[in-house]
Amino acid sequence: MADDPLIYDPEGGLPRLAMIMARLRAPEGGCPWDIEQDFDSIAPYTIEESYEVADAIARRDWDGLRGELGDLLFQSVYHAQMAEEAGHFTLDDVLRGIADKMVARHPHVFGDTVIDSAEAQTDAWEEVKARERAAKAQTGVLDDVPLGHAALTRAIKLQNRAARVGFDWPDVAQVIDKVAEEAQELTEAAPEDRFEEYGDLLFVMANLARHLQIDPEAALRAANDKFTRRFRFIEAALAAQGRRPADSDLAEMDALWDAAKAAERTTKKDQPA
Fold this sequence. Notes:
3 domains, EC 3.6.1.8, 12 helices, Helix Hairpins
């Protein structure tokens, strides 16, 4: 199969990428791995690429972000190519749809509606989405909250939707009380009930994050990074003695953990305000 010159054109932009994807999926001369894939097999890669974008941003790795955004864009092109093959829609349909949606959801930019704050824009956005759900015959408040979201993110979206119709605690103190209640229920739960009770605790912790205006995914990523940083401090301290964590014990490693915390506090204190 002869390749179109566009495939090798460095200025080819999105049409070039779409053509490369079509070539990879071509039954004759395409890539065997790409040809075998379907929506279900590619979806995990799409989610993974989203997290890699977030990771590059968190690390302020701008060169890395450029590459990760390309990988994420390729995922959209991949799904659109498979959809076109199945007769569902094309990449042009995807591009037209998102452009139309952005224009419709920003009447203050592309029309004569006046919106003067981010909060007002959020409210207007939700009103537009509610009308869109009604047009799709989605009458339930939670109908179109995607199942594919990370669980903590979906919990926040479900809670935000419910809050918009008044199903929410009015202040954070009540949420904290609920956290304590769910923690107690988990402590007292029979073994066969612990799974459900643990889920309830995580759900209310997500609600607490929402009331505190904290992104729970970002907070957990930061906690993961902190754990990694401090555990590496332990490894380095032991390596200086020619030992590994497996050669130590909990008491010693816990003391080194406290030393790592103290070192971090000193570093923060010495940083300019």
